[in-house]
Design goal:
Elements: H1 3-8, E1 19-22, H2 26-39, E2 43-45, E3 56-57, E4 65-66, H3 72-78, H4 103-122, E5 135-138, H5 141-152, E6 167-172, E7 178-185, H6 188-191
Parallel strand pairs: 1-2, 1-5
Antiparallel strand pairs: 3-4, 6-7
Helix pairs in contact: 4-5
């Protein structure tokens, strides 16, 4: 099954992905390239959609040495066609400048991400997309784990796996209900090929 087919699994009939968001971390920006090409979409870099912990060097010390993220100009130069305007042109040191993110800070950030998804569910679909607003967001395992805990209310007693190249599909309904269509689904061999067919 080709990549768009994997993303379309479980979507309402006739629904199509109309927006594509990605983490600002280089490995996610790279993963997004074939997906954007196959979907014919311009990716938007979402600065808050990074992995839990942020950018740090675990070997540097126990608290994690501070690293910077890519700047808006670096993202636009390396990944032509990406909309990195949310990163901010005035941030000289890159999108990340905070050392290692605490679990508490990550949980607050995740609540903001979930609230943004809920807000987007109430907005009309942009551009030529008709009907349900369907977005894809390329992120990270622990980020997805915390999003799943937040939307299900399961808390820390329940852990949601999110393996590399897997897909989780959540339906943020306008009535506030979040339907988990599927979680940790995928065919990794599709994502490890050089060319993804449409």
């Amino acid at each position: 099954m080709a990549m768009p087919g994997l993303f379309a699994a479980g979507l309402p009939p006739g629904a199509r992905i109309g927006q594509l968001f990605t983490s600002p971390v280089r490995r996610c920006l790279q993963t997004t390239v074939p997906l954007a090409r196959s979907l014919g979409l311009q990716p938007t870099v979402w600065p808050d959609f990074f992995e839990v912990g942020g950018m740090y060097d675990q070997a540097a010390d126990d608290s994690g040495g501070q690293l910077g993220g890519l700047t808006q100009a670096e993202i636009e130069r390396e990944f032509g066609g990406y909309d990195a305007s949310l990163v901010g042109a005035g941030i000289a040191g890159g999108w990340w400048r905070g050392g290692r993110e605490s679990e508490e800070d990550a949980e607050r950030r995740i609540r903001g991400i979930v609230q943004r998804f809920r807000s987007m569910a109430a907005e009309p679909a942009p551009g030529p997309a008709a009907g349900a607003r369907v977005i894809a967001a390329v992120g990270h395992g622990d980020l997805i784990r915390l999003i799943m805990q937040e939307v299900t209310g399961a808390g820390k007693d329940v852990s949601f796996g999110s393996f590399n190249t897997s897909i989780t599909c959540l339906d943020f309904r306008s009535d506030g209900v979040v339907q988990v269509r599927y979680s940790n689904y995928g065919a990794p061999e599709v994502f490890h090929t050089q060319d993804v067919t449409t």
